[in-house]
Task: structure prediction
Amino acid sequence: MVLTAARSRNPVGATREMFSQTQDEIGDVSIYIGFECILRRLDAEQHQFAREMSELYRNNRVVGFHTYGEQYGSMHVNQTLTGVAIGRRRA
Result:
C-alpha cells in the first residue's frame, strides 16, 4: 500500500490517522518505508512538535529519509510524507 500524509493544521494528528487507516485497511504493518519532505521536518521543529512526530514514527516502525518534496503530475508538492507500508493482511 502506498500512503501519503500532506501538510495539515495538525500534522501529528493527521499522520496518526494515516497510520490508523493504513492498519485498518491492510492489517498488521511490519514496517513503513517513508520519504518525508525536509520542510515538513523543519516545520515540526519550528512549531515544537518534532519530538512527538519522531515518537510517532518510532512507534509505527517508520524508516526512511528526507527529500525535497514530491512531484505530483507537473506540480512540486512540499511538506509531505510519502511511503510504502509492508505488512500482512488479516485473514
In short: The radius of gyration is 13 Å. The chain has a mean pLDDT of 87. The CA atoms of residues 47 and 53 lie 11 Å apart. The chain is about 40% helix and 35% strand.
